[in-house]
Amino acid sequence: MKDAFGLPQSLLVLGGTSEIALATARRLIARRTRTVCLAGRPSPALESAAADLRALGADVRTVAFDALDPESHETVLGKVFAEGDIDLVLLAFGVLGDQAHDERDPVAAVRVAQTNYTGAVSSGLVAARALQSQGHGSLVVLSSVAGERARRANFIYGSSKAGLDAFAQGLGDALHGTGVHVMVVRPGFVRSKMTAGLAEAPLATTPEAVAAAVELGLRRRSETVWVPGVLRVVMSALRHVPRAVFRRLPV
Amino acid sequence: MPAETASETVSVTGWGRTAPSAARLIRPRSYEEAVGAVRGCGARGGIPRGLGRAYGDAAQNAGGAVFDMTGLDRVHAIDAADGTVLCDAGVSLHRLMEVLLPLGWFVPVTPGTRYVTVGGAIGADIHGKNHHGSGSFSRHVLSLELLTADGSVRTVGHGTPLFDATAGGMGLTGVILTATVRLQPVETTYMAVDTERASDLDDLMARLTATDHLYRYSVAWIDLLARGAATGRAVLTRGDHAPLAALPARARSAPLSFRPSRLPPAPAFVPEGLLTRRTVGLFNKVWYRKAPRARTGELQRLSAFFHPLDGVPHWNRVYGRSGFVQYQFVVGHGEEDALRRIVGRIARRRCPSFLAVLKRFGEADPGWLSFPRPGWTLALDIPAALPGLGAFLDELDEEVAAADGRVYLAKDSRLRPDLLTAMYPRVDDFRALRAELDPRGVFVSDLARRLSL
């Protein structure tokens, strides 16, 4: 169960090698989390992530999960929930793609959309139903500022996050009053392996900062969290910039 | 046939309004309906709930059933000669006072609110300002009827293992249907109250140790925002039921009248951050200064003495939507240093707490998970939104556990589970009894899940 401060005792990470998710897990293990399930494609990276969390004192296991295989989500996640209540589901999987390449390779572009959006729709719905039947829990969805307004430079990724964001908001409203809390997290540019080699955007942040914002959002039962917080203001301004100007902005 | 009882799925919290969870709320109107509700509560079990005054998650059951017992609220029999009452567990102490005071009887133990049920009073084994002499509520319960997981109703006598598991058992042994309670005789509904100020914590403890035994009721409001030499300054209010002879002639015509007044309720929406160090510090300073240095024999209405907050319905809303945490612990006699350290830490931390209360407990009662034990208990309210509060309270837990103390489960919403056994050594007996009495785990609450009770 979550405590008065929204801190979970059990955590399920979808996308178990996500740096943001692992930073969040480390932070939560330092407080109350005792059992962690890392769901992701089987890989040495997934196992070593599990070992790192185990070293912090948590009971950690890994589960084979593939966002691109929605048919399997019901079975895979059903098994996790059958073993005990999950207080927090962190939907953290996602790929950035390579915009320039993907524009010329529609199949690759669709993979970005399928991972970030349709994979999240199916696993999000499965997790939401399980949380609803246990009557409590939080579903934290890692969206992105890129979904707030599509930019020339990464609109394939941005549109997938826009879909995910809208889905998660709607899901949150659908689950209002069911004891389940859905929180959409919109980080800006996060320094991680996903963005390694890219030019850093203004207001860049770190996985640890996102983790801290997630913990705070859980305590406040927030529905939307921006990281850093000032992005809420920046993005609401950017959203209203005329297209002709926005197109020319160096963002 | 077990009757079908209407139910609806609602979001449930405790009085602190933290950590909501959804449950089917079922309100039985007869014992048969209660039996039916327990038998048919499904895989995620059920938990009885009274008036929802437990601060944390004790009367919540995510995804399962919550039995709202306030529909079973009959007072069955009063023995006005002997001073006992047999009533449904859903009867509130408020109702009991309305019925009993005109007959010259009072509840044996009352907490800081009248709006708790008899079932909740037993389940949390509540204490009041008379704990140093009268013990906790269960000491005055002669017997009770318990609806257990198999759907049967058992009569449980005082002093049996099932009684001791149920007293303080947070509703996890079953649903209390009725109880027979021994009452306290009173001549009037007034209290004769002595008030004095204590300049710091040591002064306070010295005064309580020296003269508590002279009073039936005793409590100290403590200013946890005062620092330095004034750390732990307090206002003691102690007293007893006023005898008829103490009343002025005007009041003697109706010495047993009980008509507590209520103000309008707190508004449904209160902005966050009203209770800051500054506002609460100011309140505390005024409260301390306005208290008389020493006053004896002041007559107070019973409700003003015991239940001042009941005058403001929904006062818990003043903490805003994040809600609040109540932290109450006890450390034994001889652990005064631990109490000093904890009070010092709270004062240095500047927790905006204006409802802080210190009391000296007397002999413990045998409830396995009953909170009180001889020593010092401190209770304080803190806004849940205060940054870093969770980690800070964890540190206090360590101090409490190291001093062989414990925190109060009826108020808890955040205890670290691995400290439970140190604080409640009989929790293993409790689990064993539950495993035998309720092998399918019919009775379960969010508290029980969180702490593996």
Features:
heterodimer; A: 251 residues; alpha/beta; Rossmann fold; seven-stranded parallel sheet; 9 helices; globular; B: 453 residues; alpha+beta; Uridine Diphospho-n-acetylenolpyruvylglucosamine Reductase, domain 3; Vanillyl-alcohol Oxidase, Chain A, domain 3; 2 domains; eight-stranded antiparallel sheet; five-stranded antiparallel sheet; D-arabinono-1,4-lactone oxidase activity (chain B); Oxidoreductase (chain B); FAD-bd_PCMH-like_sf (chain B); Oxid_FAD_bind_N (chain B)
Question: In brief, what are we looking at here?
Answer:
The complex is a heterodimer of chains A (251) and B (453). Chain A is an alpha/beta fold.
List the helices and strands and how they pair.
The complex is a heterodimer of chains A (251) and B (453).
Chain A (H helix, E strand, L loop, with lengths): L9 E5 L4 H11 L5 E6 L3 H12 L3 E6 L5 H13 L5 E4 L7 H6 L1 H29 L2 E6 L12 H20 L5 E8 L19 H14 L3 E4 L3 H8 L4 H4 L5
Parallel strand pairs in A: 1-2, 1-4, 2-3, 4-5, 5-6, 6-7
Helix pairs in contact in A: 1-7, 3-5, 5-6
Chain B lengths: L6 E6 L8 E6 L4 H9 L6 E4 L15 E4 L6 E5 L4 E5 L4 H8 L4 E2 L11 H6 L7 H4 L6 E7 L5 E5 L3 H6 L8 E8 L1 E2 L4 E9 L2 H11 L5 E6 L11 E8 L7 H4 L24 H14 L3 E8 H5 L17 E9 L3 H14 L7 E5 L13 E9 L5 H14 L3 E2 L12 H4 L3 H11 L8 H6 L2
Parallel strand pairs in B: 2-4, 3-4
Antiparallel strand pairs in B: 1-2, 5-6, 6-10, 7-11, 8-9, 8-10, 12-14, 12-15, 13-14, 13-17, 16-18, 16-19, 17-18
InterPro entries (chain A): NAD(P)-bd_dom_sf (IPR036291), Sc_DH/Rdtase_CS (IPR020904), SDR_fam (IPR002347)
Protein name (chain A): Short-chain dehydrogenase
GO molecular function, one term (chain A): oxidoreductase activity
